[in-house]
Amino acid sequence: MAMAVAPHRENSSGSINKHLDTGKYVRYTAEQVEALERVYAECPKPSSMRRQQLIRECPILSNIEPKQIKVWFQNRRCREKQRKEASRLQTVNRKLTAMNKLLMEENDRLQKQVSQLVYENGYMRQQLQNASVSTTDASCESVVTTPQHPLRNANNPAGLLSIAEETLAEFLSKATGTAVDWVQMPGMKPGPDSVGIVAISHNCSGVAARACGLVSLEPTKIAEILKDRPSWFRDCRNLEVFTMFPAGNGGMIELIYMQMYAPTILAPARDFWTLRYTTNLDDGSLVVCERSLSGSGAGPNAAAATQFVRAEMLPSGYLIRPCEGGGSIIHIVDHLDLEAWSVPEVLRPLYESSKVVAQKMTIAALRYIRQIAQETSGEVVYGLGRQPAVLRTFSQRLSRGFNDAINGFNDDGWSLMSCDGAEDVIVAINTTKNMSTIANASNTLTLPGGILCVKASMLLQNVPPALLVRFLREHRSEWADFNVDAYAAASMKAGSYAFQGLRPTRFSGSQVIMPLGHTVEQEELLEVIRLEGHALTQEEAVLSRDIHLLQICSGVDENAVGACSELVFAPIDEMFPDDSPLLPSGFRIIPLDSKTCEKQDVLTANRTLDLASSLEVGPATNRAAGDTPSNAYNARSVLTIAFQFPFENHLQENVAAMARQYVRSVISSVQRVAMAIAPSGLCPPLGQKLSPGSPEALTLAHWICQSYSNYFGAELLRTDCQDGESVLKQLWHHQDAILCCSLKPLPVFTFANQAGLDMLETTLVALQDISLDKIFDESGRKALCSDFGKIMQQGFAYLPSGICLSTMGRHVSYEQVFAWKVLAGENTVHCLAFSFVNWSFV
Predict the structure, then answer these.
(1) Domain with 721 in it: what CATH number?
(2) What percent of the chain is predicted at pLDDT more than 70?
(3) What is the CATH classification number for the domain harbouring 266?
(4) In the listed set 356, 380, 404, which residue is the last one of a domain according to the structure?
(5) Most buried of 64, 548, 589, 729 (most Cβ within 10 A)?
(6) Does residue 782 sit in the same domain as residue 656?
(7) From CA 612, how far away is CA 814, in angstroms rounded?
(8) Rounded to whole angstroms, how far apart are CA atoms 318 and 321?
(9) How far is 736 from 604, CA to CA, in rounded Å?
(10) What does the UniProt keyword field contain (predicted)?
């Protein structure tokens, strides 16, 4: 490999002169390049000592000066960087080329649709002008109504191929033609980094969604993934292929029975009896299309027959075209009639929304394929050394277990328990399931008992689902009981449901979130939650009382129209084995109505800032109804809660009573949170209280600055700040991290400016769950303890430089900390303030 041309060459050996000037180029022999490449593979950036050692150990490099060796490694790293950049640009270029092709096809389709609409418009105008009223009505009906084809019957196998071919034609007309009036999905903008081009139906029978995207997998692999619907469609309970035979033209026809979970306890589940046709087109494209068949076909188990409603799948499927340079362009169409008549009227928008179908089926399929593609290419790295397939299995098990709990199918062994006089919650029991059936039998002690589930659904008004789920995730102590979590965790660990022997434990209020993985666009997070507990007796102080939960959180993006928000968790052993038994519980919030108007900036993640204050202060601090902005969030959603508890037979009644009481307390807490984050209690003005018992924000800012000036003899902010709002604004945007903590036996933070929240990687609400000692390392805690008396006596102190920890476990360095008492009056200490100077992440 020639790095440059040498000024001269020695004929005897072909090597360069030992005493070349340092500025001259060097031509390396093949042997020298091979030796350097071996070192580069081990260490791309060797130190000076390593380069000297290389020259000593490798005789063929003895005539090369160390500086030339250094230059070779610099050039080699530069070439590697250029190669990677060139590869990245080629990938981006392929994506852009494919996306451009998709957009051109979409443009052609829209032009055809416009031409068709113009023709129909002209035709209708002519009929209105020249015909009588009766004739006009008849002609209009013939134009605007689409003949509804009856469901196809599969009783005659000879006719299945004609049904398949007709399904193929109708599917292609939806995927690339104008059979459906498609409009762009709100909030989904196409681009090289987007999931794809997503559209929903407009004025069409049933609900339909379509997506087009580029995936770096081959067509056969994509078809294999998509046909395995339970692996990516979380609402698919079961898919069974009853009959499969070749179509005679290289294709394959399958008769399929599929069951789909109900999303709430207020509606029955759905099932489908369909024909699926897989074939190759003349242009090399692979097609998988599907539609419902008439006739009874396959059906659910007789025990669960009343829990299902037969729905219809209109021609749907996948068109997969190979791409030049690798990968595929995929078109996905989902077109369903979910029989909305069979659900309560309040839930019908959920079954009549194309946006919901787009999020739960169409976009989910495209995202799953992209996820598999990135995992296959090695672009995705997950935590705790787990393989992606293992983590996907955990997510699927959590979701499936939660859906099973909500639906409580009779053929799974669920039955209803008699109520205790109130009908606010439903209690179901399953004695066919216990810890030995949901776990590896070799790791579990089989005990007589079962699983008990308490569930409820309720309607929420003007509560953003994403915001509510984020709060439930970040502030578990606001609604959960640590002792109940400890009971469930103990049951999972030991296989014993010793309810009466449960020992009381104090929950410290802090939780540590350890990320495991996330999907491509981070719409779903998989994480382990560690809840820190402390024994109340000295004898058990030496025992670890921490609880570990495996948790998935999804739907936290408020801009995702029609997306379902979920928080599902299950106790798990701290060793986190792959075959851990899981008993999921959690929350699901589904929007029923589309947002009627555009949201303002207050509906961002920062809206959780004053939520804790709203919870305690109550209606007195809420904005008057007349002050609610005209473009505030205004929508309904349905919340479903399901909690599962293991039990032994002789403790069934005790566990049922405890479970009812616990779930009712959770419902009460969630309703309190929901009232606080509804528009009337959302985003109070700056002058309102920042936390329970604290002064108004403007007053607190004044106290912080005034106390700093009194103790340190200097101004914390610019001296030109006069009015309170200016003081608060400058304090909020101050470059140093300023935090206030309460004067309690276990000091917790009550306020932080923006830099403080960034340093701790939290929000103002989550801040109140963080104790002062948790953020310092060992040396920082010692410095704080040694100077704490000085702070209380003289009112201030200087803490030396050190390291602290964010809530995400990242190390943060700081040069110095100013600590001082914040005085609310002449002799009244309101809180302690800390200013972390020149902080940065390590």
Answers:
(1) 3.30.450.20
(2) 74
(3) 3.30.530.20
(4) 380
(5) 589
(6) no
(7) 29
(8) 10
(9) 24
(10) Coiled coil, Differentiation, DNA-binding, Homeobox, Nucleus, Transcription, Transcription regulation
Query: What is the SS3 assignment for 545-594?
Result: CCEEEEEEEECCCCCCCCCCEEEEEEECCCCCCCCCCCCCEEEEEEECCC
Percentages helix, strand, coil for the chain (3-state, rounded to 5) are 40, 25, 35
Torsion of CA 150, 156, 161, 164, to 10 degrees: 30
| Calculated CA dihedral for residues 547, 552, 558, 560, nearest 10 degrees | 180
- State yes or no: pLDDT of 35 exceeds 70: yes
pLDDT of residue 613: 38
| 339 and 190 within one domain | yes
The band of 612, judged by pLDDT with boundaries at 50, 70 and 90, is very low
Residue in the block written with tokens 């005790």: 654
Inside any domain, residue 617? no
Residue 111 lies in a domain: yes
Convert the pLDDT of each residue in 412-432 to its tens digit.
Answer: 899 988 765 556 789 999 988
- The residue from 645, 677, 709 where one domain ends is 677
> Which of helix, strand or coil describes residue 313?
strand
For the chain, the C-alpha Rg in angstroms (whole number) is 33
The answer on 356 and 397 residing in a single domain is: no
Residue 277 and residue 313 in one domain: yes
Cβ distance 403 to 237 under 8 Å? yes
Residue with tokens 């998988």: 288
Q: Using 50, 70 and 90 to split pLDDT, how confident is the model at 696?
A: low
Together in a domain, 375 and 401: no
What mean pLDDT is reported for the chain? 77
User: Do 376 and 396 lie in a common domain?
Assistant: no
645 in a domain, yes or no?
yes
CA distance 258 to 336: 13
Confidence of residue 311 (pLDDT cuts 50, 70, 90): very high
**Whole-angstrom Cα distance, residue 617 to residue 687?**
14
Model confidence, pTM: 0.64
CATH number of the domain that residue 407 is part of: 3.30.530
Q: Give 477: exposed, middle or buried? Use CB within 10 Å, 0-12, 13-18, 19+.
A: middle
- Are 59 and 30 contacting, i.e. CB atoms less than 8 angstroms apart? no
24: Cβ contacts below 8 Å, ≥ 6 apart: 6, 7
Nearest-10 Cα torsion for 719, 723, 728, 731: 0
Compute the distance between CA of residue 77 and CA of residue 320 in angstroms, rounded to an integer: 39
Asked if residue 195 and residue 115 are part of one domain, the reply reads no
User: Using an 8 Å Cβ cutoff, are 293 and 271 in contact?
Assistant: no
Higher pLDDT: 593 or 543? It is 593
Shared domain for 69 and 188, answered yes or no, is no
* pLDDT tens for each residue of 326-346: 788 899 999 999 999 988 888
Which of 525, 519, 511, 509 is CA-nearest to residue 466? 525
Give residue 556's identity as a one-letter amino acid code: V
Cα(326)–Cα(323) distance, integer angstroms: 5
Start-to-end Cα distance in the chain? 40
Nearest-angstrom CA–CA distance, 221 and 331:
15
Tokens of 169: 């034609």
Instruction: Say what the pLDDT of residue 620 is.
Output: 35
Domains: count for the chain: 4
The answer to whether residue 38 scores a pLDDT higher than 70 is yes
Measured CA to CA, the distance from residue 193 to residue 380 in angstroms comes to 16
Categorise residue 334: left if φ over 0, alpha if ψ from -120 to 50, beta otherwise.
beta
Chain centre distance of CA 716: 40
Helices and strands, counts by H and E, the chain: 19, 29
582 and 438 Cβ atoms separated by less than 8 Å: yes
Any domain includes 301: yes
CB 691 within 8 A of CB 768: yes
Count other C-beta atoms under 10 Å from residue 137's C-beta.
12
